[in-house]
Specification:
about 270 residues, alpha/beta, Rossmann fold, seven-stranded mixed β-sheet
Length: about 270
């Protein structure tokens, strides 16, 4: 019997980003693959949002590309640190660890207690995957992450909603406690935050959500801590692989614009050893 997802529930909110990835996999199966994401939707009774046309396709490709970017960075880190902790910050129902699992790394999923309860209800537990129920700004969750084999942290669509000072404190604490570690996350500019409110947050009826953290220049982030070895910005849509011509001329032109304008960017911070 399939698990029923109620309209307007927390579960539905957590599933919407994954639904974009599911759409991208259906449109471009040779470009995007996420078996666990597909299995999740096979197990639930979910009334999918009405999404069609070029706007829906662009949104789906962007959602899937963000996950592809995160996974790419994690895989590169695991080449040098095969037993590392791979830590998903604000994990929701994200299944990225399954995409990068090399058989020796350990995946940690950190989110609010109510979200972790839903995750454990909808996603069966697997070996070497550990859920941690905690607010990211309460740094006690770090006590659960080992340091000896390396640690890579990633956050997908998370930091926009956290106050800048709290993000700074989090990054500095990670760099101090996990030397040789790394964090990768997506970001936008202050103008990008305003656009988020006017577009997809409005469509999702989430305009009351606070948006705080933005990145205008990665050099500003570099000054936050002497424990940062490097801070690198890459284009969200073009930084990790070439655009596919099947997306279409209009979509690819838009993707290049959002990358060049820094509206969609990926930030990688390496911590000093």
């Amino acid at each position: 019997m399939k698990h029923k997802i109620s309209k307007g529930s927390v579960q539905e909110t957590l599933l919407i980003p994954l639904y974009g990835r599911k759409m991208a996999m259906e449109l471009y199966p040779d470009l995007f693959s996420d078996t666990d994401c597909q299995r999740l939707f096979d197990r639930i009774d979910f009334e999918a949002p009405v999404m069609s046309g070029i706007k829906a396709k662009i949104g789906a490709v962007m959602a899937a590309t963000r996950q592809y970017d995160m996974a790419s960075v994690c895989r590169e880190y695991l080449k040098e640190h095969p037993k590392a902790a791979v830590v998903n910050l604000g994990c929701g129902l994200d299944t990225t660890f399954s995409q990068v699992d090399n058989g020796t790394a350990v995946g940690y999923h950190v989110d609010f207690p109510d979200v972790i309860r839903i995750r454990e209800e909808l996603l069966p537990k697997k070996d070497r995957q550990i859920n941690i129920a905690c607010d990211l700004t309460d740094h006690s969750w770090m006590d659960n992450i080992p340091t000896k084999d390396g640690a890579i942290f990633f956050a997908s669509g998370v930091f926009y909603y956290i106050k800048t000072e709290d993000v700074k404190n989090l990054f500095c604490a990670l760099a101090k406690r996990f030397p040789g570690g790394k964090i990768v996350f997506d970001a936008t500019t202050a103008k990008g935050l305003k656009n988020m409110l006017k577009t997809w947050l409005k469509d999702a009826d989430m305009q009351t959500v606070g948006l705080y953290f933005s990145v205008e220049d990665e050099k500003h982030l570099a000054a936050w801590s002497d424990d940062f070895a490097s801070v690198v910005r890459k284009g969200y849509m073009t930084g990790y692989r070439k655009l596919d011509r099947r997306y279409g001329l209009f979509a690819n032109a838009l993707f290049r614009i959002v990358d060049k304008s820094r509206m969609c960017q990926m930030i990688e911070i390496d911590f000093k050893q």
